[in-house]
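The records we work with from here on pair a chain with its fold. Each token is a code from a learned vocabulary of local backbone shapes. A record is reproduced here so that you can trace the correspondence yourselves:

_____
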Amino acid sequence: MKLLFAPLYDSLIPSSILMHKVETNRLILFFLLYIINIINIMNIINIINKIVKNFL
């Protein structure tokens, strides 16, 4: 059904712009989550290092 209406969707430029906006927002969200994860991992590594130093 979607394949049948694909030409119609392609001709509707505003909808494709909207989709592009959604994709861009998703990419930005993914990138932010990625950065937050890296920061969290670095914090965990720092905490582990402190614990290890306390034991040594």
User: Anything to note?
Assistant: Residues 20-56 form one domain. The radius of gyration is 22 Å. The first helix runs from residue 2 to 11.
